[in-house]
Amino acid sequence: MDYLWTPWRYRYIAAGVKDEPCIFCAAAEGRDDAQSLIVLRARKNFVILNRYPYTSGHVMVVPYAHQATLAASEPETLAEMMALAQRIEKALANLYRPDGYNLGMNIGRAAGAGIAGHLHLHVLPRWIGDTNFMTTVGETRVQPEELSTTYERLRGALSA
Known about the structure:
Layout: H1 10-15, H2 23-29, H3 33-36, E1 38-41, E2 45-49, E3 59-63, H4 75-96, E4 100-104, E5 121-126, H5 133-136, H6 147-159
Helix pairs in contact: 4-6
């Protein structure tokens, strides 16, 4: 394997990306959960719909604490995060009957995190054949359900 060294790029890497206001902190501090799409508030985390979902039912479990990494997070927060993911899986199974799930975290901008400064866990229901030509060729996602409908359905299922 060959390596190409570019020491002049270190300044760019070290400077990083400037932080913008955190959308998760703003949502958690808000008073209108329906507007911010928070479907459930727990003790250490909240569950929020993804405003730009890959599939209907795409949610994120987000700690209230503004931490960027697992290492910086409290064990209790992470334990509750997984308990909520388990609860979400059951709710999604009852509501949407998916064929599977994707759960994932992108920690750091280089790993693909859109909100790199605030840890969050994506939970997505998946169906066989849910990626089609619209996504692949048209770079467009077709959602069969409006966010407001998803919000009401999931909020009800998670409140029960």
